[in-house]
Amino acid sequence: QHIDLMPTMAAVLGVKAPANLRGRNLLPAAGSGTIAPQGIYSEAMMSRYHFGWSELTSLTDERYKFIRAPKPELYDLERDRAETTNLVTERAQVSAAMRGGLDSLIAGRGVDAPGAVSDEDRQRLAALGYVGSASVADTTDGLTLPDPKDRADVHREFSLAAKAIGNMQFVEAADRLKKITSADPGMTDAWNQYAQVMIRLGRDADALTAYREIINRRAGATPALLDAAAVYLKLRRFDEARSHAEAAVKGEPVTAHQLLAKIALAERKPDEAVRQAGL
User: Fold this and answer.
1) HSE (CB half, 13 Å, CA atoms) of 112?
2) Which residues pair with 59 in a beta bridge?
3) Which of 17, 112, 116, 259 has the greatest number of CB atoms lying within 10 Å of its CB?
4) Which helix (H) or strand (E) holds 235?
5) Contacts of 90 (CB under 8 A, 6+ apart)
6) Which pLDDT does position 188 carry in this prediction?
């Protein structure tokens, strides 16, 4: 509201408001006037970034809410505040109008990439044997991806796996996560949880396989590179540990150099350990 009032305040103070200042005059609301309704835009990106499914965007006006998804939804908020009846087919004209308004809002915007990967880093990952492709490119239209509504059972299984981990029931968690990664291999969060469970169960080789799946699907997965390096260090596979840690230097320099110092100590190279600690 502070920003919306700025044009009016500027006029009162005799100064000119910036031409690019976004907002509306709220002064009528202080008296007997009214303010014209304005649509509300919302978005949910978790399903795309974490699970490789479609993102969800919506537009809500004074009566209706339209949700843009592979299977679109329209709800009449005056009669159905709980959003239980999808009217996208029955009220096709309203759906088309709100879809057009929403499309104009997000036209040409695209989806922010989780993290850019330089050509140098991509080549370094390729030298380690990784494909280096993202699970979902930021240019991919979300409408071509799975609808989160159709993956409710997978999300529920993921929640049960997380609960099992919290209860220290690692065998059960491993079984659930394995089921998820088999059915939906693009879920890098599930691969990461599976790797952590494998480490708890002493199955380091399986943990490394899971980390490789993450890195193959998400080229800039610095945490996975560091986690894999730590497992390689534990297995005393120093060359592989070092190469993975070096690949993570640009993303997380402090943690990567700290790990490289530990690798050098394990190799009985104190001078290199001191150099890495200094870095």
Assistant:
1) 6
2) 41, 66
3) 259
4) none
5) none
6) 85
φ and ψ of 84, to 5 deg: -100, -20
Residue carrying the six token digits 């990664």? 181
Q: What's the average model confidence in pLDDT over 141-157?
A: 89
Rounded-to-integer distance, Cα 199 and Cα 66, Å? 44
C-alpha span between 241 and 245 (Å, rounded): 6
- Residue 251 tokens read as 């993303």
Angle between helices 170-183 and 188-200 (to 10 degrees): 150
Task: Report, in this order, helix, strand and coil percent for the chain, each rounded to 5.
Answer: 55, 5, 40
d(C-alpha 246, C-alpha 255), whole Å: 11
Q: How does residue 30 score in pLDDT terms, banded at 50, 70 and 90? A: confident
pLDDT of 70 reads 95
Percent of the chain exceeding pLDDT 90 equals 55
Task: Return d(Cα 216, Cα 219) in angstroms, integer.
Answer: 6
Nearest one of 175, 194, 256, 200 to 223, comparing CA atoms: 256
Per-residue confidence (pLDDT) for residue 13, from 0 to 100? 56
Q: Which residue has the tokens 């490394």?
A: 208
Write out pLDDT tens, residues 70-106: 999 999 999 999 999 999 999 999 999 999 999 888 8
